[in-house]
Structures are given as structure tokens and as C-alpha cells.
Write a structure and sequence with these properties.
Chains A, B, C: One of its GO terms (biological process) is lipid A biosynthetic process. 3 copies of one chain form a homotrimer. With about 350 residues, chain A is of the alpha/beta class. Chain A has 3 domains: about 5-95, 3-Layer(aba) Sandwich (Udp-n-acetylmuramoylalanyl-d-glutamate--2,6- Diaminopimelate Ligase, Chain: A, domain 1); about 100-305, Hexapeptide repeat proteins (UDP N-Acetylglucosamine Acyltransferase, domain 1, 3 Solenoid), CATH 2.160.10.10; about 315-343, no CATH class. Chain A is about 15% helix and about 30% strand. Chain A has 4 helices and 40 strands. Chain A has an 11-stranded parallel β-sheet, with no helix packed on it. A 10-stranded parallel β-sheet of chain A has the order 9-12-15-18-21-26-29-32-35-38, with no helix packed on it. In chain A, strands 10-13-16-19-24-27-30-33-36 form a 9-stranded parallel β-sheet, with no helix packed on it. In chain A, a hairpin with a 2-residue loop joins strand 22 (about 190) and strand 23. Chains in contact: A-B, A-C, B-C. Chains A and B meet through strand 22, strand 23, strand 38, strand 39 and helix 3 of A and helix 2, strand 40, helix 3 and helix 4 of B. Strand 39 (about 300-305) of chain A pairs antiparallel with strand 40 of chain B.
Chain lengths: ~350, ~350, ~350
């Protein structure tokens, strides 16, 4: 056995308010996929595409929707949204070693910083003047918390996170390694023959329950702050420029980017490597598909895309060459139509 | 009051060589936007789009162009380029805590490194054999300066910057957290069934007054050096491959990338997530719009683009499917025209 | 002279199994380009595009293919693949300072970590509980090796590399600064009005002889592992999502990205900033050109592309506007053809 915690079907049903089917004493001590889960593991079926695997699954417990429970022979939990229920139950089986309270001997902490006694400051961290680390917050190795920055209660900076200056993280914010928050916005004025830098005098405010991916960068504002409202979820290598405002519950996939002063709504889904130009607005509940570029404001919820489909290179070359003449083709088409109409 | 430094209209006019209008004793102690600046703050109007806000602005001082000064009731400074003037004046209100001279106790500095007595080496920095840190240079926390690398006078590495090897930074270079300069170029030779790595024997030379964004990467050359001339401005998460040469005063927006041995001219503007393929040349004063891909040399100044416009996904799908047949459509169009001509 | 090691033509021919032409005693102590190499440097000619430079090259030794040797007056080595032979010989001239065995005084190493006596743990490294560092492995400054992670024999983490948790590196793996391996996959379930995080319970397995570029991120799997087979070569700023599987000998250029659970074949070449969506398969020996987006599985080897060609912006605008109406144009074209057929 794995040494993991163990739960019975009855316990899980009770704890998560789900309906149980089958042997109430069925025990699980871990999770797996529908195809690979063993008789002591729990899994789920949320996508009807995989329904055919349900009958064959060896899993001890399967979380299913009401429509699928009849197809499950063994123990099952019925959930309105099996994926959500799975996410919550699976968290029981995640071991995160408790971070030791207090400040590691190798950390460098300014005398004026305010560190909660229940916070954990890891090896080689640097906490600068006036920074505040609230209750239960955890800084993994190699974090730098710049002057006056605030890490809210129960937030966790996994490792090597840098908060530069005027950055405030809310509660339960999770930041992955390599993220840089509060770096200078890219503000330049062109003075005849060279660049003059604009001082970046604003900060960054990150709401409660946000997640910031590995090597993601969030610049601080030029005058006002860059803002992420609560529960914004950023994947890895995302770039958020100065004075961007992202509404609550918006999720952005890896390598997407938002240029300066853009305002993204709530509950948006931004696909991988999508880009949003500066100084525009995106309404609530907008989905942008992967690699699309938003060049003007989007006022209506919905799904938006740009780009061209993938083709075998030889065919693509022929078609791409034609794209350079589309305007001409459209004119020629119209001329033919007019000509035809004159017959 | 804010405890900031205070300046009168007369002082600013004198110091920056600008023409003053209104009460010479008007005092400002900070900056703000045209809409939000208070009676003790300075702001600017450079874009005629916002001219309507000028009459209502509560700002203590507004920097305007000559054409707009008549519309301003309160104190004003007249500048040929209000944005440039604002950039310079705003810098007065930026507090950058003076970095303490000397080497922090937690830093690890090789005996053979040469550190100016006026330089500042921050907590947990590592300075390796033969590295040189010149007068007034500042290394924030967690920087690594590899063997023989040089940080020029008054350059500032904000935090967690890594110079790997054979990297020379000029004077007043500003590097943001997470940047990696001098990592191996991506050079591989394919030997029948596996890759053989090419040693990367060159270095990186960064000119005076350059700025390098957060998590930007600049590889060192294979034989010769990767070069940024003076006053090159790189935003966050930019990738510069080995042996790239970027001309003076060129600015690149976030997530753009240049492949190996490309040569970019002076005074170019490269948009966000734009890409430039390897072994090609881009002339001076070329602008590339966001997300465009440069696949061959550009010999003339001007603005260049690729990509398709964003559409509602359902419409986009219909159009994108047609792009796969453009060549055929063009042929059919020509056939119709020919046919018509034969009537 | 450079103080570099010196080799005669005869020594190199013998050591690398190449045919020598010219004075067997010709000595080289370095490498250069065909155009710049001096009489004590070695270079190569692999691309017939540069054949005209061969006669003028001042290089002490040139590696050439059999077809070009007659055009070379001085000393030459004949190789089946001159570029591969050059890669191997050039490695003789790379100085990598030997890393000192043992643990730097500033490193923080858990008592339960297992460090080979022949490994080198650099300044400010953090090695956590149960981590294993095998023979001859080198950790440069500022690396963090998370709980239970394994760094295989003779692997080298140049500097500031973070292995988060459940990460295993094979032998001779080379990881560049800023890389993050084993961070949380981006797994979220939407629970009516907010996100619920899915615990990421898998790990990352990196095969022998892989190379991971600067600031590249590789997330750990949700249940199973994220896998790179042997000799996979990743450039800088690449994003590999959870549960991705990359076949042996595949090389990916800078800023490319692979979304969750995609399976990439062996010997693939992925161009710069190309993207591959999740849950799809790419066959062996597929080439994807720069900035292309793969949105469905690719079953056949070959070269694939998407995107549009670069144009002068004014022309591009006209054509791009037409792309929004392609479906309509295609219908109108068909209508004209039909109409014509009815004549």
C-alpha cells in the first residue's frame, strides 16, 4: 500500500455531499485515470467521449454524472459536475510537506520587514525594507520580496519568485517559480534620437485566490496600478504589461500576453499564445482561441479567433502566396460579376 | 502631503528649459494622469485624443504643446514634445532607495573578481572568477555574474539576473529580474541518428543605456558575439538567439524573438510577439507590427505586417477553411476571366 | 598565442577518423568562421552557398566534404558531414572550468539528500529532502532541487535552475539558467462561479542527453508524468504543459509551446514560436515551421505550416480586410462558375 490516507465511499459521499452507489465500505487511497486506476483508486468520468471505458474501469470508485451511473458496476459517486468533484477529492491525496514556521537561517530579512510568526521564509530568501508577510504565508527558496511589498495570508510562493516593488498579493495567492511581479513597465518616450525612460510609479495588486504560473511576468503600472481581481488564473510564461486590468475568474493559458492598459473582463478564457493589444477593452465572458491577436475592443461575449489553418508546407506555400493578392482577387471577382450583370 | 520633493512651476521651467504659463509659484509634489492628477500634481497632454479632458483637469501643472496652451486655464509648461518633457520631470518623483556601497555579507564573491568600491553587491549574489563590477554598478539580490563578465559603470541589475559567461554590459544598462544573458546558443549538428552540440565560444556585448526586460534571454554567440548596440530597449520575455546583432535605439515589445545571426537595423520598432527568422537583415527604421513573422530580409524602412484579423469564431472557421483553397480559387477566377474574354 | 590547446592536422585526422590533405604538421589552436579564421584556426565548409569563400579562406585547416577538397589549397580534413565533424572538433577548444567537487559553504542541503562525492553543489544552492545528486553532476549557483528530485550522473544545471518536485533528470542532461521543471500543470475545474485547482500529482522524467534552454518551463503531470525521451533538445523560453510526451531526438526552437497531454513523435523539428494544442498526436519526423499552430493530430511525416506572408502594412491591411470575407468570395466565385456553365 502507498501509505496515503484512506477514505471509504461513505466518508467521501458525506464529506463532499455526493450520492453514493455500491459498497459503502469501498476504500481508496489515491486517484488515477479511468483507464489506469486500480481497485484502491478513485477516478471520474466527465467527458462522454470516454464513456465506453467506464464498464472496463478497474477503479475502486468512479465519480460520474447521473446519466452514467447505470453503466457503472462498482462503487460510484454521483456529482452534478464529476470533474469539479474529482478536483476537490483528489486534493486529499496531495502531499505538500508542511513548511516550517519561521525564518531560515540563510534568509536575509530587513529589520523593518514585518513577518507573521506563522509564516515560513525559506532558504536564501531576501525580504527587504518594510515588506509584510502575513499569517501562514510560505516563501520557498530564493524568493525576493522587494521594499514594502505585501504577501497576503496563506499565499504560497513556491520558489524563486521576485516581487520587485509596490506589489500586494491577496490571500491564498499561489505563485510558481521564476515569476516576476512588479518589474518596470515598458514605458519610453522618443526624444529626437534616443529613448527616455518613463518612471514606473504605480504598483501591482493581485486579488485573493489568484494563481501565477512559472516564469510569468507582471509589470507594475506607470501611474496607477496593474490589477488582477480575485481568482484570476495565469499559466506559465504569460506577459502582463503595465496598467493592465484583468477581471475576476479570468483564466489565461501559457505564453499569452496583454499589452499596456488593456482591460480584460471577468470570466474570460484566453488561449495559449494569444495576444491582446494595448489600450483596449475585452468584455466579460469572452473566449480567445490559441495564437489569436486581439487588435480592437471586443464588446460582446463570445468566442473569437484569428490565424490560418495548418497545411502541408507545399500546399500552404501556394495558398500563402495568394494571400498577398486577396484584395486584387476580390476586385476582379466583383468586376466579373458586374460584367456578367451587364450581359 | 506625500513627503515627496516639491517643485514650483518656475523651477521646473528653468530646469527643463520649458516655457511657463500661469502662477510661477504653483507647487507640485507628484504626477498623475490628466483625469486623476490633483492640484499638487503634474500631468501632460500629448495626444490630441484627450484634449477634451484638458479643460476639466484638476492638475496643478499640465505640460502641453504650443497648440494646446490656450485651452489650459491653470499653470502650464509648454514643450515641443510634452511626453518627453513629462518623462524627464516625472523621474524627479521616483524614489529609488540608494543601494548601499559594498558587498553584502551573504554574497559569494571570487577573490579574483574586481569590484569597484562604489559598487553595490546585494544579498545572495554570486560573482565568479575574474568578473568586473565597475563604479556605481548595483547588483540586486540573487544575481550571478559568471566568470570574466563585466558590468559597466552605473549599470543596475534589479534582482536575480544571470550573466553566464563572456558577457559585457556597457554603462547605465538596466536589467530586470529573471533575465539570462550569455546562455548557450542553440547550435546542433545532426549526426545520423542523434544531435551533437556545437560549443558556443562567443560572448555577448550590450551597449550603453540598453534596457533588458524581465525573463528576457540573450544567448551568446557561437564564434563571434551577440551584440546589442547602445540604447536598445527590450521588453519582457524576449528571446535573442546567438549572433544576433541589434542596431542602436531599436525597441522590441514583449515576447518578440529574433533567431540566430539575424541583423536588425537601428531605430526599428518590433511589436509584441513578432518573430524574425535567422540569417536575414532588417533595415534601419523598420516597424514590425505585433505577432508578425519576418521570413526574409527587409531592405526598405517602413511598416510591415502579417497575420489575419480577429473574427467571431464561427465566421472565422468558415473563412479559415477557405484559406486552404486560395490557390485553387485564384486559378478558377483566372479561368473565368479568360473564358469571359473569349466570349 | 591564445594559450589554448594545440592540435596538428595529423592528430585531428587520427582522433576523429577523418582523411587529411596538406601539411600534416599544420597546427591549430582555435576555431573561426570561413571568412575570419586565421592561419592557426580551424573552420569548415558545409553549405555550398559559401564555397566561393573557400579559396580565399586564411584558415589553417578547413573541414570539407569530398566534393570540395580540390578547391582547397591549404590543409584540409575531409568529412562525410563537415558540420558534424566541426562540432566535435570545436569542443576541444571550449574551456569549461572544472566545477569543484563538494558542497559550497553557502549551499543549503537537507540531511536526507544524497549527494555523490564527485558532484558539485554551487553557491546558494538549495537541495531539499530526499533529493539525489549523482556522480559528476554539477549544480551552478542558485539552483533549487526539490524534495525527492534526482539529477542524473554528469548532468549540469548551469545556474538558477529549479526542479520543483517529482522530477528525474537522466544522465548528461544540460539545463540552462532560469529553467523551471516540475511546476504545477495548469489544471482547473470551473465550479459554477469560480475555479477549483486540480492537484498535480504526477512528475517529470527527462531522458539522457536532453538539453533544456534558458527560462524554459516544463510542468509536471496531473496523474502520470510529463516525459521527454532521450536527446530531446529544447531552446529557450519553451513551454511544455503537463502530461506532454516528447519523443527522442526531437528539437524545438525558442518560444515554441506544447499544450497538455499532446504526444510529439521522435525526430521532429518544431520551429520558433510554433504551438501545438493539447490532447493530439504528432507523428515521427514532422517539421513544423516557425509560428505555425497545430490544431489537430498529424499522422504523416512531412513539413507543415500555417500563417500568412509578411507585407508592407498598407497592402497587408487591404488583403487582411478581405480575409474576413473569403467564404463569401468562394460562394460568389462558385455562383459565377455555375452561372457561366448555364450559358
Amino acid at each position: 500500500m502507498s501509505g496515503n490516507p484512506q477514505y471509504t465511499l461513505a466518508e467521501l459521499a458525506e464529506r463532499f455531499g455526493l450520492e453514493a452507489h455500491g459498497d459503502a465500505g469501498t476504500i481508496v487511497d489515491g486517484v488515477g485515470t479511468l483507464a489506469s486506476a486500480t481497485s484502491t483508486q478513485l477516478t471520474f468520468l466527465s467527458n462522454s467521449k470516454y464513456a465506453s471505458q467506464l464498464a472496463d474501469s478497474q477503479a475502486g470508485i468512479v465519480i460520474v454524472g447521473a446519466a452514467d451511473v447505470a453503466s457503472r458496476k462498482g462503487a460510484a459517486l454521483v456529482a452534478a459536475d464529476p470533474y469539479v468533484a474529482y478536483a476537490k477529492i483528489a486534493a486529499l491525496f496531495e502531499h505538500v510537506a508542511a513548511a516550517p514556521r519561521g525564518i531560515h537561517a540563510s534568509a536575509v530579512v530587513a529589520a523593518s520587514a514585518r513577518i507573521s510568526p506563522t509564516a515560513s521564509i525559506g532558504p536564501c530568501c531576501v525580504v527587504e525594507d518594510g515588506a509584510v508577510i502575513e499569517d501562514g504565508a510560505v516563501l520557498g527558496p530564493h524568493c525576493t520580496i522587494g521594499p514594502g511589498c505585501v504577501v497576503g495570508a496563506h499565499s504560497r510562493l513556491v520558489a524563486r519568485v521576485t516581487l520587485v516593488i509596490r506589489v500586494t498579493l491577496g490571500q491564498r495567492v499561489l505563485v510558481h517559480p521564476g515569476a516576476v511581479i512588479g518589474s518596470d513597465g515598458f514605458g519610453l518616450a522618443f526624444d529626437r534620437d534616443h529613448w527616455v525612460k518613463l518612471p514606473q510609479l504605480g504598483g501591482v495588486r493581485i486579488g485573493d485566490d489568484c494563481e501565477i504560473g512559472a516564469n510569468t511576468t507582471i509589470d507594475r503600472g506607470a501611474l496607477d496600478d496593474t490589477v488582477l481581481e480575485e481568482d484570476v488564473r495565469l499559466d506559465n510564461q504569460i506577459q502582463i504589461a503595465h496598467n493592465v486590468h484583468i477581471g475576476a475568474h479570468t483564466a489565461m493559458a501559457g505564453c499569452s500576453a496583454v499589452a499596456g492598459s488593456a482591460k480584460i473582463g471577468r470570466y474570460c478564457l484566453i488561449g495559449g499564445n494569444a495576444g491582446i493589444l494595448g489600450h483596449l477593452e475585452v468584455a466579460d465572458r469572452v473566449t480567445i482561441t490559441a495564437k489569436s491577436l486581439v487588435t480592437s475592443s471586443i464588446r460582446e461575449p463570445g468566442e473569437y479567433s484569428s490565424g490560418t489553418p495548418l497545411q502541408e508546407n507545399r500546399q500552404w506555400r501556394r495558398n500563402a502566396a495568394r494571400m498577398k493578392h486577396l484584395d486584387e482577387y476580390a476586385r476582379r471577382l466583383a468586376a466579373l460579376e458586374k460584367d456578367r450583370g451587364n450581359d
